[in-house]
Write a structure and sequence with these properties.
alpha/beta; Rossmann fold; Dihydrodipicolinate Reductase, domain 2; 2 domains; six-stranded parallel β-sheet; 10 helices
């Protein structure tokens, strides 16, 4: 299959290449695409160098699949053009996610809604993906009424400039800034831009995307998103209120048997999810399961995942794998 990776030099683009290779996706021709500044440079895929080209040249090569991770403006302008030639676009930007005619997909949850006519498919927000991987099976069993989530998000979610800022500050270097404040030895309650309602765009993504993915708007979500000085991996403290009571051992059993989810819930042995242990892995990790002692039918838990892998690149490749396996592409 002819596969274009748009935004190939970015952090997610690089992991997309790694995921395509490590998961043995059937790539007959890789078409690496980036901005004008990177055209002519090389990227390595499966041990071979490939020359980066521009969007128009990539379009002319008529790829069958395009993985986009180049920002909302590029996706807005170019995803429809690729779709027009019959290419299936899986877009990692936020531009198409809440469009009523575009499907928002986490394969373990709702891949069955996809058809061959879906030529633009939205990849959810990184924090949303790991959240719904845990919410979906519990909602199916108990019915979720309300979700409170506080995120602890790594700087890699902002991009390479933010990673550089953190490393510069650790080394005492006064370099370019991705954030309005220091991030080293700090925590910023500021992920994405602030909106008129006082929430950030990241927080509103967490409030709306899960409902679309799970096909149910009966439950409500309130989020606070915080940037912390870790280089990779997002963490979430989650409080769930169900419509009926639950058995904690049954909750553990459900999560332990959910594909793509790993239960790490042995606090007495210091075993619980952490960004450092989730790094480089494609699964979502959940632990610290305990009843909320202040409210009925309520559960506290802790969710961690590698935001560049399952939170972005791996989920996109998994969508592509589903399309191939079901002859939809």
């Amino acid at each position: 299959m002819r596969v274009a990776v748009v935004g190939v030099t970015g952090m997610v683009g690089q992991i997309m290449l790694d995921s395509l290779a490590s998961r043995s996706f059937p790539v007959s021709q890789l078409i690496p695409v980036a901005s004008a500044a990177s055209i002519g440079k090389k990227v390595v895929f499966q041990g071979q160098p490939h020359t980066i080209i521009g969007l128009q040249e990539a379009l002319d090569q008529k790829p069958e699949l395009a993985l986009f991770s180049a920002g909302g403006d590029v996706s807005r302008d170019w995803a429809p053009r690729f779709a027009e030639i019959g290419c299936t676009v899986i877009d990692n930007s936020s531009f198409w996610r809440m469009h009523p005619e575009i499907k928002l997909v986490v394969p373990e949850i709702n891949a069955a809604i996809l058809t061959a006519e879906d030529k633009i498919i939205a990849n959810p927000n990184c924090s949303t993906i790991q959240l719904v991987m845990v919410l979906a099976p519990l909602h199916k069993k108990y019915g979720i009424n309300r979700v409170l989530v506080s995120t602890y998000q790594s700087v890699s979610g902002t991009g390479q400039k933010a990673v550089q800022q953190l490393n510069d500050e650790i080394s005492g270097i006064n370099g370019p800034k991705a954030y309005p404040h220091p991030i080293h030895k700090n925590a910023l309650p500021h992920c994405d831009v602030f909106l008129d309602n006082g929430y950030t765009k990241e927080e509103m993504k967490l409030a709306t995307e899960p409902q679309k993915i799970m096909g149910d708007s009966s439950f409500k979500i309130s989020a606070t998103a915080v940037r912390i000085p870790t280089e990779g991996g997002h963490s979430e403290s989650v409080n769930l209120t169900f419509n009926r009571d639950f058995d904690l051992s049954e909750v553990r059993h459900i999560l332990d048997n959910t594909p793509g989810v790993i239960l790490e819930d042995e606090p007495v042995n210091n075993r619980y999810p952490m960004p450092v242990s989730a790094h480089g892995k494609d699964e979502v990790f959940v632990g610290r399961l305990r009843r909320d002692l202040s409210a009925s039918n309520s559960l506290n838990l802790w969710i961690v995942a590698d935001n560049l892998r399952k939170g972005a690149a791996t989920n996109a490749v998994q969508i592509a794998e589903y399309l191939c396996a079901n002859h939809l592409i």
